Amino acid sequence: MQCDMLPLVIETQALSKLYGRQRALDGVNLKVAPGAIGLLGPNGAGKSTFMKCLLQLQPISSGSAKLLGREVGSEGREIRKRVGYTPEQDCHIPGMVGCEYVTYCAQLCGLPFRAARQRAHELLDFVGMGQERYRKIDTYSTGMKQRLKLAQAIVHDPEVVFLDEPTNGLDPRGQTQILELVHNLWHAYGITVVVSSHLLNDVDQICEQIIIIARGRVLVHDTLENLKARKRGAAEVVVAERHQELQAACERRHWPCELLPNGHVKVEHQCGSLNPLLNLLHELKLAPLEIIPSPNALEETFVQALEISHAAA
Amino acid sequence: MPLHDTSYKHWNGVHLGLWNRRLVIARNGLTACLRNRWMRHLVVLCWGAALGVTALLFLMGQLLVADSIVVQWVGNFNPGLQTFAHMLTTWLEQHPEISVRTTQNLLFYFFCTYQMRAGIFALGMAIPVLITRDLASNAIIIYSSKAVNRGDYLLGKFATAFGLMVLTWLGPVCAAWFMGNLLAPDWRFFWHSRTVLGHILVYGLSSLSFLSLLAMGVSACASKEKSTAGLWYMWWIVGGVLAPIAEHTQPWLRHLSFNYNLDQIALAVFRLGDDLNTARNNIPVFGDMLRNIRPQTMEALNTPALSGAVASSLLMAGLAALILYKKVKPE
């Protein structure tokens, strides 16, 4: 991916991490510009290890890494002052109430007590926690814990925040709310977000840069837009009625199409843009409710990358 | 819907320094310890003991004043006792280095060593809060992802243990020394008892550092609160029982008890044997009472097993440091 003109957030050179004989990261070379970055990969691919190496939670076996222009390993504290992290697993401090915990986390990053307390309440408001902030964390539901983890990660106003599986264990409503918050962090407030997930839909919704990791190697690093452009030529059309008519019109133009179980019509129009499809709909005087371009681009890229990786192995 | 602005706001303030962050860890640990009701009771008890010692020092000070209320009060009961008190007062005034230094040294030796038990007990209650809980809840990851590293975390926890011991042990002892001398009839009491304060500080600070490190090591041994607290109390009690038995069988076994080691260091620091000899040879009437101490006891007081105690304590501290190094990691 071309990002030479932008200030880099992450820069790694031949970054490797070994757990005994197991190679968790294998010569990772990356140059990542600010933005909403999705770190994709199957379980055990090395996503979490990559994050932990950058945050110095795990020592690097070989190679080098820079975060926000500073050398990981020698400037750990300074880096972490400007970085937030939500781990995958629960890791609160027992016996504390929510607002006390977030205040404490802010103080650990160097905020004075008054500022820390004020920020804690602001951030708990931001993540949508109400009076439950005065309850002990041990009594929180999974959704509350996820919100609290997000609040503690951004309470010190970091420049980059690493989110490891932020929607794990959440119901669909909770997932949507968390993803919306994360989406806003970059798009509204300019905080670079690195989201590690194996849920493609999550990443598809909030990220604009994609890094696919498997077997400790970076398989793909590109913008979501570019990835979708590679897969351009298909779209899902959501119409309220006249599905058969649309299908027949597509077949007349030799565009393979299919009625999906969810009622959408998948059309492979095989063009670089959506204009021919829009023209067809105009001719039919059919008003679509929604058109989803390149609907499975990310999934297809992901599967393709994994297949190549497996074949190479 | 919230009535106030819930949007994200950037923060542009000045970050506090590293020592402040370490202090935050220490203060948080101390607050967590003091949430325990029994711990608060123990702290009150320790400061109560300090008040008792202050009162004792006040009474002893009054003995040095010929017309003090105490001497008059004693005279109300028995005129003979008043005469004796007058005689003692005259002698004590002539020998302040013995009357003040020796008596305070003896008193503070006992106060220090007994108060240490309270400190060890308090540490036992604090052990689950020190590191065990953080290991059990993975909180180490949270610490490590903030602007502190493992060393800062351990330093903060060390300060927690140290602070707790100051609160239950060194604080009350030093306060008793200060208040006792402040209430004394003469400012020279501060001067004559300065070496006693030196002994208290040398013994107190070295023992506090050692015990704090040891408690941290025990706290990091396991992630179950009952296991670590149990291990601490077991070690303390079994060591205490083992030491007198081992004296007649395998003397080196005594050094497995950290309590015994600290007692030996206390004897060496306070030089209790010297003081007892001074008192025995110089203080009228009371000195004669001290002649009844058995020669074996005097021998033990005069020649504490200092080298063994120091070596054993260093070994224990090294072991604790090794446990901390191995166990306190993000993963």
Describe the protein's topology.
The complex is a heterodimer of chains A (313) and B (331).
Chain A: E1 10-19, E2 22-32, E3 36-40, H1 47-54, E4 62-67, E5 70-71, H2 76-81, E6 83-86, H3 98-108, H4 113-126, H5 142-154, E7 160-164, H6 172-187, E8 192-197, H7 200-206, E9 209-214, E10 217-223, H8 224-230, E11 235-238, H9 243-252, E12 257-259, E13 265-267, H10 275-283, E14 290-293, H11 297-312
Parallel strand pairs in A: 3-8, 3-9, 6-7, 7-8
Antiparallel strand pairs in A: 1-2, 1-4, 4-5, 9-10, 11-13, 11-14, 12-13
Helix pairs in contact in A: 3-4, 3-5, 4-5
Chain B: H1 18-34, H2 37-62, H3 69-77, H4 79-94, H5 96-136, H6 139-144, H7 150-182, H8 188-192, H9 194-219, H10 225-246, H11 258-270, H12 272-282, H13 286-290, H14 295-302, H15 306-327
Give a count of the beta strands of chain B, DSSP E runs of length 2 or more.
Answer: 0
Strand content of chain B: under 5%
Q: Tell me the overall shape of chain B.
A: globular
Q: What is the number of helices of chain A?
A: 11
What is the ordering of alpha helices and beta strands of chain B?
HHHHHHHHHHHHHHH
> How many whole angstroms does the radius of gyration of chain B measure?
24 Å
Mean pLDDT figure of chain B: 87
Largest interface: A-B, 45 and 39 residues
Question: Which keywords apply here?
Answer:
A: 313 residues, six-stranded mixed beta sheet, four-stranded antiparallel beta sheet, B: mainly alpha
Describe what you observe in this structure.
The complex is a heterodimer of chains A (313) and B (331). Chain A has 313 residues and is of the alpha/beta class. Helices cover 37% and strands 24% of the residues of chain A. Chain A contains 11 helices and 14 strands. Chain A has helices at 47-54, 76-81, 98-108, 113-126, 142-154, 172-187, 200-206, 224-230, 243-252, 275-283, 297-312, and strands at residues 10-19, 22-32, 36-40, 62-67, 70-71, 83-86, 160-164, 192-197, 209-214, 217-223, 235-238, 257-259, 265-267, 290-293. Chain A has a 6-stranded mixed β-sheet, sandwiched between helices. In chain A, a hairpin with a 5-residue loop joins strand 12 and strand 13 (265-267). Chain A starts with 9 loop residues before the first strand and ends with a helix. The model of chain A has no long low-confidence stretch (mean pLDDT 86). Chain B has 331 residues and is mostly helical. Chain B is built from 15 helices and no strands. In chain B, helix 5 packs antiparallel against helix 7 (150-182). Chain B is globular. The mean pLDDT of chain B is 87. The A-B interface holds A 52, 55-58, 76-78, 80-81, 83-85, 87, 89-95, 104-105, 107-112, 115, 119, 122-123, 125-126, 128, 152-154, 156-157, 184-185, 188-189 and B 2, 4, 6-11, 13, 15-18, 20-21, 24-25, 28, 32, 35, 133-134, 136-149, 152, 330-331.
